[in-house]
């Protein structure tokens, strides 16, 4: 199975808000997406953690 579960962390407050899956064979770089952070109360950039 090539899809793997990853956790997304807010770049501003460093809270781990979201988890998603990604295909490691097609996307080798770290995932980055804008998501709503409940702790910050606004849309911020969330990056993939280990």
TrEMBL record:
<keyword id="KW-0687">Ribonucleoprotein</keyword>
<keyword id="KW-0689">Ribosomal protein</keyword>
<dbReference type="GO" id="GO:0006412">
    <property type="term" value="P:translation"/>
</dbReference>
<dbReference type="GO" id="GO:0005737">
    <property type="term" value="C:cytoplasm"/>
</dbReference>
<dbReference type="Pfam" id="PF00471">
    <property type="entry name" value="Ribosomal_L33"/>
</dbReference>
<dbReference type="GO" id="GO:0005840">
    <property type="term" value="C:ribosome"/>
</dbReference>
<dbReference type="InterPro" id="IPR011332">
    <property type="entry name" value="Ribosomal_zn-bd"/>
</dbReference>
<dbReference type="InterPro" id="IPR018264">
    <property type="entry name" value="Ribosomal_bL33_CS"/>
</dbReference>
<protein>
    <recommendedName>
        <fullName>Large ribosomal subunit protein bL33</fullName>
    </recommendedName>
</protein>
<dbReference type="GO" id="GO:1990904">
    <property type="term" value="C:ribonucleoprotein complex"/>
</dbReference>
<dbReference type="InterPro" id="IPR001705">
    <property type="entry name" value="Ribosomal_bL33"/>
</dbReference>
<comment type="similarity">
    <text>Belongs to the bacterial ribosomal protein bL33 family.</text>
</comment>
<dbReference type="GO" id="GO:0003735">
    <property type="term" value="F:structural constituent of ribosome"/>
</dbReference>
<dbReference type="InterPro" id="IPR038584">
    <property type="entry name" value="Ribosomal_bL33_sf"/>
</dbReference>
């Amino acid at each position: 199975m090539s899809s793997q579960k990853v956790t997304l962390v807010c770049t501003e407050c460093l809270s781990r808000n979201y988890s998603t899956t990604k295909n490691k064979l097609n996307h080798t770089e770290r995932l980055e997406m804008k998501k709503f952070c409940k702790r910050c109360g606004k849309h911020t950039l969330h990056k993939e953690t280990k």
